[in-house]
Amino acid sequence: MPLYPVFWKFEMEKTLGQKRNFSLSVVVSTTSQLNGLNASFFDRIFLGNPFCPKIQDNPVFCSGELERAATGFPLKEKIILNMPVCPLEEEMVNSAEILNRAKDIGLKAVCVSTPGFAYWIKKEFPSLKVYFDSFANVYSLQDVRFMKELGVIGGLLSCEVDLAEREYILKNSDLEIITPIAGYIPIAFSRYCFFYPKELPENCPNPCQNNCVLSYPGSGQVKQKGRVIYSGKSFFLLEHLGQLQKKGFKAFRVEGWIMAPEKINKITDLLCGALSEGYNLKQEKEIFGLFPEGLCNGFLFSGRGMDYCKENG
Fold first, then answer.
1. Which of 193, 218, 242 is nearest to 305 (CA)?
2. Can you give the pTM of this predicted structure?
3. Which of 18, 125, 209, 275 yields a CA-CA distance of 20 to 30 A from 302?
4. What φ, ψ does residue 118 adopt, rounded to 5°?
5. 33: helix, coil or strand?
6. Which distant-in-sequence residues (6+ apart) come within 8 Å of 114 by Cβ?
7. Backbone dihedral region of 158: left (phi > 0), alpha (psi from -120 to 50 degrees) or beta?
8. Distant-in-sequence, close-in-space partners of 110: CB < 8 Å, separation ≥ 6
9. Which helix (H) or strand (E) holds 106?
10. For residues 158 and 186, is the Cβ–Cβ distance under 8 A?
């Protein structure tokens, strides 16, 4: 029995027959999320949670999950495997094993969080394409050029980089700059789980299924999950997509780390409509219905991330 819905075949054939003036990616943490995605929406799928080895059905760390995720997956070239966020010596050995398995099942690209890891992969696995994510601390045009020297072909700038700087980098570099446009942004990482005062137990009783909200004085909140802190409100740029496209941005990503696949599919449908046909108020109303806690636009417009420019209603 196939892991993926039969309708994907027809949806993908239809989508592949259309020319889009943008590319859209998504990142998901687990095989379960991958199984529920409508893959026809996406040009690429960044797969796996690189932060915590204890997450259930995480293709980055769990034995057999990478093979299970790829079994029967149509258009395997869409998958970009997320590698461990800050590998130490033992994890580098494990990473070599992961990369060999990825090559064996036909994956062509990976995503890393450190320049040193990118350099090592291009040296040891030169045929693999390498991207960088927002934890790689790429803030400037000089950083982007350095990543290109390492053989990296594109990635996500650090989440603190504002729109003006992103536009400058985009116009002065030939690397693919991918811009997040929706979802919960990972903003902090720890080698220790936030739910345990010491190192994780051998058998985590409830691996990263915990979900709590940290509040601080005023109205600020952030989501805490395992080893990672995410933005308390979903990052969302629905009404700004036309502006981004006019400025030359063409590659976008949905941050689906902790979202159910059904929710990812719903918001991606709205995003594709806005990217292809323009933004309308009906789309905005639907988005606010999906995110009752509200939305934010991060650091993109050099203001407070909690100040969303559109009020609900």
1. 218
2. 0.86
3. 275
4. -60, -45
5. helix
6. 86, 87, 135, 136
7. beta
8. 80, 81, 82, 83, 99, 102, 121, 128, 129, 130, 131
9. none
10. no
CA 146 to chain centre: 22
Residue 47, class by beta-carbon neighbours within 10 Å (0-12 exposed, 13-18 middle, 19+ buried)?
Answer: buried
* Beta-bridge mates of residue 155: 132, 177
- Across the range 271-296, mean pLDDT stands at 84
Sequence letter at residue 90: E
Q: Residue 79: exposed, middle, or buried by beta-carbon count in 10 A (0-12, 13-18, 19+)?
A: buried
Taking the C-alpha atoms of residue 40 and residue 36, their distance in angstroms, rounded to an integer, is 12
Mean pLDDT, the chain, as a whole number?
82
pLDDT at residue 233 in the model: 83
Q: How confident is the model at residue 83 (pLDDT cuts 50, 70, 90)?
A: very high
> Can you tell me whether residue 295 is helix, strand or coil?
strand
| Lowest pLDDT segment from 20-24, 72-76, 227-231, 288-292 | 72-76
Can you tell me the mean pLDDT for 270-282? 86
Q: Give the CB-side neighbour count of residue 179, counting CA atoms within 13 A.
A: 27
Give domain limits for the chain: 7-296
Rg of the chain over all Cα atoms, to the nearest angstrom: 19
C-alpha 269/C-alpha 227 separation (Å) is: 30
The CATH architecture to which 7-296 belongs is: Alpha-Beta Barrel (3.20)
Dist. CA 241–CA 284, nearest whole Å = 12
**Percent of residues, the chain, with pLDDT higher than 90:** 43
Q: Any idea of the CA torsion for 5, 225, 49, 67, to the nearest 10 degrees?
A: -50
The amino acid occupying position 235 is F
